[in-house]
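Lab notebook, bench 4. The sequencing result for the construct came back, and we need a structural model before the next group meeting so we can plan mutations. Quick request posted to the team channel:

Model the 3D structure of this chain.
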Amino acid sequence: MKGIKIPKKEANQVRKILMEKSIIDLGLKIKRDSEYVYLPLMCEIEINSEKLAESGISHLDILEIEFEIQKRGPKSFMDFLNGKIDEVEIQEIKKSFDIIGDVVILEIPEKLEEHKHTIGQAALDFTKRKAVFMKKSEIKGITRIRELEHLAGEDISETIHVEYGSRIMLDVKKVYFSPRLATERERVAQQVKDGEIIVDMFAGVGPFVMDIARRREVLIYAIDINPSAIHYLKKNMELNHVEEKVVPILGDVGQVLSEHDISADRVIMNLPGTAYEFLDKAMELIKPGGIINYYEFSSDFYTPIQRIIDAAGPRKVEILNKRHVKSRSPGIWHMGIDARIN
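Done. Here's the predicted structure in token form:
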């Protein structure tokens, strides 16, 4: 097959020119030796010495060369399933899935469960992680966990997830954690100023807490009702070297706060299903001019904003920001509201 022999120092320039003209055969591997680079051609080309000179190319030769075929692996999760599952069924598989450290969590439609191990192996091969699990239930209970079924790789559920420089240890079977909220957590962390006293009412394993405490001189009261969440929260305090900035508290936020005399500059309320039930408690904590980062599942902004206004009573509420954090279901959003309580 035809190829071009080019001195190494000119190879990159020539390659760019030929790529622009779609002349290089991308199905074949480029060859190299100590002095020259050999580019595979799609077809024969005419050598125009004047044009080469204008481009700064001194000389090149076209000759017969044996090139190796370029091996191209699958480029997407779906590519790993081609030929294993019917193409129509492949489209049924939810393409987006959660990667938490070395663990992958998939959502597979019920009618495709007979292929679950094939799909799990494809996810393992594609992501190069250690374990793949399938969601077996919705998030449920006051501890906010879901049932998972192991599909492929090692049967390990404890992992360390890295997010904006924070190391977050957790067990995906024992605690709630969503990597899809990373950008939101970073956005809130950037709001925080040194010296703030913060209450994270539903802290979980501490992703908000770690992101804030690592970069600011603050004091954070991190509360959760799940003993496993508090266990990993304490582990994460050590991993991120923020032990002096965080007070972990196990218990129902509605009860344990009465045991602590706290006046907060900021209250984080990321429990979008039922956070509204604790807005009165947040108003008791917040200092004049303090900020509540409030989250709720809603179809509109009016409902969560009105809840905050109602809970504030005679105090003035200033809405600093409102946004769709992520979609929960058709027409329902995980809403985020930042409100200053004066």
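The chain has a mean pLDDT of 89.
Will bring this to the meeting.
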